[in-house]
Amino acid sequence: MFSRPICAWRALIASVAVLMPAAALGQAASAGAGQAYPTKPIRLIVPFSPGGTNDILARMVATHLSQTLGESVIVDNRTGADGIIGTDIAVKARPDGYTLLLVSSAYVMNPAVRKLPYDTPKALDFVAKLGASFLILSVGPSMPVNSVKDLLAMAKSKPGELVLSSSGGFMHFASALFTSLSKHDFNIVLYKGGFPAMIDVMGGQAHANFAVSVPAIPHLRSGKLKGLAVGTLKRAELLPDLPTLDEAGVKGYDASNWYAVASASGTPRPIVMKLHNEIVRYFNMPETQKQLTAMGAVIDLKTPDEMRKIIPAEIAKWTKVAIDTRMPRAVD
Question: CATH number of the domain that 195 lies in?
Fold first, then answer.
């Protein structure tokens, strides 16, 4: 009379005995993936042109990883559409850690104004945030202003007349955020790049500009530009005498072009963490920190879990800026 229950228990025990080795094998395979990785060259996509901060950081990371991982890390510049083309290639790559992406703030700004071929919050597994380059609100030497207060007073007396030279993508958003938070009407003129936008300020063809720290600092030192404030919430180590825009009265202003390394969603966690740990080790080296500080970059390392929380908040922030400032939007 007990034969059926006994048989059932025996079948259950047998099934558990089969499943336990399978689960252990799966865990071992996942761990093994991180230990064996990499076994072939890695591609690091930069979705912007060579020579910019994105490209410089990518080549620094690629050189270090090539030396420490034992396989070549090849930088591949895939430009176009404010970074969307290169990003889409990385998003659709096999999630095995052999295609990486150098991500910048454009990644969280694009969904605010454009329809994208990928789901931004879920498309990538972030390996590490590296840091950021800060912005400097600058004017030319002939401008009769020496502070943010002076500039805003001039803008108030000439609504819509002061030209704030800018370029697309991140720089456009940074300029729009300034007009929104300062509650002053500037004429934002978009140039084909950040460098020509800065040159026109130096020459007096435009009144003010948000210049990226890396190319702007030499011109500040030579007197070709006057810096009024930095765009981060903390003062810049390289320019300690310049106030932040928040200190200067534009409360809450915080716009820095941050950079990170990511891979396609679904990359095994051991591979992500192996890359993360190696990149963090490199960016904590005194020589690396000295080199980045000299460039005008700010190291700000974040973990994959921290980036998972940061991305949705950044998308919401810049979407609000786009709506509040009536930037052209094609998101449907």
Answer: 3.40.190.10
